[in-house]
Amino acid sequence: MTIAAPAPITDPTTPDSDDPADPTTSEPEARPASMWRSWKSHLAMALVSLAAAVYVCQGLWRAPYRHVVADNVSDQGQFEWMMSYGVYLLQHMSNPFFTTLLNAPRGVNLAMNTSSTFYAVLFAPLTHFAGPQVTFATVLTLNLAGSAFVWYLFLRRWLVRSGPAAAVGGLLFGFSPGLVSHANGHLNWTSGWMVGIVAWWVLKLPEKGHRVRNGVVLGLLCTMGFSVAAEALFFCALACALFLGVWVFSRPGLRAVKESAGRVLVSLGVTAVIAGALLSWPLYMHFNGPLKFTGTGFKMRFYSEDLVSYVAFPLRSVAGLFGWGADLAPNATEATSFLGAPLVLLFVVALGLLWKRSSPERRVTLRALAVVGLFFFLLSLGPRLRFMGEEHSDTPLLYALFVDVPLFDSALPVRYTLVVVAIFAIVLALLADEFFKRGVLAKLTVGVLIVAALAPIAPLPLRTLERAPEPEFIASGKWQDYVTNDGVMTSLPLSIDVAVDSMRWQAYTMARGGDAQFRIPAGYFLGPQDYLETGRHLVGRVGAPDRPTDKLFYKAARWGQVPRITNLDRAQARIDFRYWKIQAIFLPAEVTGPKGPLNRDALLRLTTDLLGEPEQVQDVLVWRITPGVDPVDRTEED
Fold this sequence. Notes:
The protein has helices at 35-56, 58-62, 73-92, 117-122, 124-130, 132-158, 163-174, 177-182, 192-202, 211-250, 254-278, 280-288, 318-321, 341-357, 360-380, 417-436, 440-454, 472-475, 501-512, 548-559, 567-580, 600-611; strands spanning 67-69, 98-99, 108-109, 384-387, 390-396, 464-466, 488-491, 526-528, 540-542, 582-588, 615-617, 620-624. By secondary structure, it is an alpha+beta fold. The protein has 2 domains: 42-71 and 131-457, no CATH class; 472-624, no CATH class. Strands 7-10-12-11 form a 4-stranded mixed sheet. Strand 2 and strand 3 form a beta hairpin. The longest helix has 40 residues, at 211-250.
């Protein structure tokens, strides 16, 4: 997602220099401030970051077992399932990269989904004892706080002397409109702390004497990063490679270039060996495993930045309270730019001032930052220009060259903006560091400008709504009377991206542990368009390929459509139930959709017409299914 400049706080050849130089020649411990004072400032920043994260996530913490992020109900349910799978994984020593618990009988390739195995395993004890709802809120809160804090430390180590300057950059990145937008359901894209740590170690590669150690550590960090957010790790690697390439070959003197490049290449070789060995299984599953596919199931041209969105204000911000926000994002979770005109203007002015006041060594760093920022800005615009909500199909852009390139074809263009946001945070920290050390007037002027640029985009808390509570039928374990262990059962409607309750009920049983577990058909995941074993190119899609019966349930739940059921419908249902090997269907008292409750009454009428009268069991209605037999045909008199 991002990369910072390889420059320490002091120049090795001129101890009094204001400009940073080679990252391997100086350590931040040389600062005159005492270790105690440094720790006090670090602690203060950590507390501020945590308080801000709790503020943003407060709606979830008020009622973690009932509240859900209103702008992305489904993704929260999906990540709760992933967290619960961590408990199941450890208890049953299951395959972390493939499961048949979802999408029975085919299964799901988890290596091609946002499984976040690192979080799932690390927080498995919390998930088991408190539930995946609490784990989700915990990880989300720590992600935002950790992103701001790690980037504060990162800037302090590599770029700035001033703690307040580093805090400005850290808070801008950690609570940028982009990260807060992704907090609407995404545990992977809010993990900016991971990218900061990986980038930190990348900048250590040119240092002398630690080639093997640095390579080993970076390999371990890349392995961790892949299991947290593989797409973000790809962005980080791309940004680091581009930055280091520009930085190394912009340095004066061929000898310096050769020395730096040699050390970096040796360390990267070690990194490749370590990460390659540890990631061989998930990478094999990703590129050659069962149910593999290409693409994402999402339209790249739709998930691209509108050019105007960079200077617009986000809807969920202080500016949005005054009606100044702009609705130009693909959805509320992908509003990744929206930096506002004041901040964009300040960024441009800051680059000019810093360039003018910098030494040749510092200009190498600024040039590399500018190149990375420009490259990712162009990628974020997608394959065709979008302006004020309109796509100009006759104006191809840089991303059009990468649409079918592996890895690029699995990344949504709008998300490349997060790298641009990081560049903004770095430049703003450099500006603050440059002027905070000067007189009172300079400090006051720059401070006011920074506040004026950041205040309008300060985030508001995430919107939440209530969702269906866990049925007693699931919580009490009564469900075990209606399905065999590892048998197939589902609530209605079958899980899909806009209705994930069935995945939630399965997730809560996984989180509690125990030997008994049921599987579900369909689900919210990424998979191939179909399952034809023809060896042809399979494009990705969201969820399982549609079957006629689950479409009936979906239309009833979403739009209240209840068609007249005939024996042809029942015959098709027998085929579908036999395919899924389903043993029971149940309907809870509440059914959650993307914006609130779905049409339970319509589901009840449809299913009763299809299968007959249900059985009341605690707080749900249950229909037992004999695959291949149910539903039986009826005469008109029936």
